[in-house]
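Re: the 363-residue chain
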Amino acid sequence: MKFRNLDIVILGLSITSSWGNGHATTYRSLVKELSARGHNILFLERDLPWYASNRDMPHPPYGCTEIYSSFEELTDKFSINIRKADLVIVGSYVPEGVRVGKWVTSDAEGKTAFYDIDTPVTLAKLHNKDYEYIDPELITRYDLYLSFTGGPILELLQAVHGSPMARALYCSIDPKQYYPETIDINYDLGYIGTYSDDRQPALEGLMLNAARQWKEGRFIVAGPQYPDSVKWPSNVDRIYHLPPADHRKFYNSQRFTLNITRQNMIKAGYSPSVRLFEAAACGIPVISDYWKGLDELFTLGKEILISGSFKETLSFLKNCSEEQRQKIGQRARERVLSHHTSAHRAEKLELYILELFQKKKAK
């Protein structure tokens, strides 16, 4: 479908820094693809100390990125952009998100959307009356609720929380960045993930205990914020932070990749991680925990492997032949390339925008 060029403003947590967050890689791939499709993208990012000192892409080479220091500077410098845009998207965890969202939905003459990269977490926060970046009234004001989580939660957002239109917009990968490479395989199993209390038991149960049982195995964990209390087995290497530019080499240096899902995401289901898609795009078979909806993204046992214990993890690592391993990885790669690239997400977003415009005409 040929879509007219649009002016789109995105206010997101970060596009310049991937440190300690999964938002940047999502925004980078989406903005890159939307720009390639002819849309004019302005990304607005709050200047936060943590990200300011850890910017691995300070000047994204696609769209236009502007940094602002306060809500007042945001409104002073970018009011015209907000007012005249065809679509304004505000992301989850944007600082002063409720204040920003109410300003956007009041001033924008075009359509507005909330992009929730943390939907199950958001709903838990709403239940606890924690309105850090969105509140119940604001949900009803956004024309579109874009969710990293699909499935039944979309109907919940509409029927219970009053969203006029809730649609899934999963994470994605850029196939020019994630692909198989012939390099030395140094590890049997690897994992990328920032530390979180609710993921750590699964990391222990599915990987670290496997490493303790299989001393000859080679393991690696990349990600920041792990406390000193974590007892790392001697055969587990650590990388404090791995910038996205190094992810492809990381995946291709291991036989299998581990995917672990946060408990809120497991409970909601239909919440794929970008790390899952990245590894699969590299043709590396993924060993994952299970959640509802995973079988709609990949064929279990053929395109992805499910583990519920270190024993099952070790069974895959030790008993899967090299031919089987490569076939699983190739099937997963084919699935990602056919359904989960940034081009697919950009096209999906265009369809949602078209749906919004059609609803407006029908009134």
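The mean pLDDT is 95.
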